[in-house]
């Protein structure tokens, strides 16, 4: 990954397995969100390839790439809801664009998806009229509108208090199980990493490559990279210092 002559990361090679909750982690400025943008096709790799189900996404023609993307759901740090549209209209949009559902069928799906994320009855509210945590959940309802195979999250807990963050983590796990999706998320929140993730990659800003790959709990306890162990044990270290 590079911006012109400026290298961001190199020699990245990892698998996201079907059914994983996969975390992209690392220190600030290491390229976590940039990697996610590459995986989404928003940025083209400077070298290498990205494969979905064994098929090249990087080299696919535009029609094939669009077909792959229709199996994805995406949420952004801010939620990414359209402020001029109600919550219900935001969730409706993917179905209007990509399905031939009738208005009644779309209305039923919207009601169901909002109920799944705990927002039943909020169809007519605008994003400005609900809390930050509710906006995150509304964005999640829109992301799962088409029952995606893969859900992508960029810092889903950003800006949320610990309780709201924990509830969102539980919701992500519940939705993953209910629709059978694979989850790929960028986060630096240790509670999220340890409570829901089963696979991960650690990007290092200094060496500009990945230096760890696997279950984050195992990496915390057994990684041969001190920086990885320090990153994953930082809250325990801080608690120990505060207790002294």
TrEMBL record:
SMART domains: AAA (SM00382). The keyword rRNA processing does not apply. InterPro entries: AAA+_ATPase, ABC_transporter-like_ATP-bd, ABC_transporter-like_CS, P-loop_NTPase. GO terms for molecular function: ATP binding; ATP hydrolysis activity. SUPFAM superfamilies: P-loop containing nucleoside triphosphate hydrolases. Pfam families: ABC_tran. It comes from Parahaliea aestuarii. Keywords: ATP-binding, Nucleotide-binding, Transport. This is ATP-binding cassette domain-containing protein. Residues 1-232 form the ABC transporter domain.
């Amino acid at each position: 990954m590079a911006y012109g002559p400026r290298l961001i990361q190199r020699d990245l090679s990892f698998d996201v397995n079907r059914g994983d909750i996969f975390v992209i982690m690392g220190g600030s400025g290491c390229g976590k969100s940039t990697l996610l943008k590459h995986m989404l096709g928003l940025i083209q790799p400077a070298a290498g390839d990205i494969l979905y189900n064994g098929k090249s996404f990087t080299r696919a023609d535009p029609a094939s790439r669009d077909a792959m993307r229709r199996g994805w759901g995406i949420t952004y740090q801010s939620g990414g809801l359209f402020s001029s549209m109600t919550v219900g209209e935001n969730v409706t949009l993917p179905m209007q664009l990509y399905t031939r559902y009738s208005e009644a069928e779309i209305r039923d799906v919207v009601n169901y998806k909002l109920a799944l994320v705990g927002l039943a009855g909020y169809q007519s509210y605008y994003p400005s009229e609900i809390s930050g945590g509710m906006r995150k959940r509304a964005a999640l309802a829109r992301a799962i509108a088409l029952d995606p195979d893969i859900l992508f999250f960029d810092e889903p807990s950003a800006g949320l208090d610990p309780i709201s963050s924990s509830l969102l983590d539980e919701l992500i796990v519940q939705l993953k199980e209910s629709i059978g999706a694979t989850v790929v998320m960028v986060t630096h929140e240790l509670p999220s990493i340890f409570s829901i993730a089963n696979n991960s990659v650690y990007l290092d800003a200094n060496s500009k490559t990945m230096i760890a790959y696997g279950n984050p709990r195992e990496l915390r306890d057994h990684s041969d990279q001190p920086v990885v162990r320090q990153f994953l044990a930082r809250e325990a270290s801080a608690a120990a210092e505060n207790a002294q």
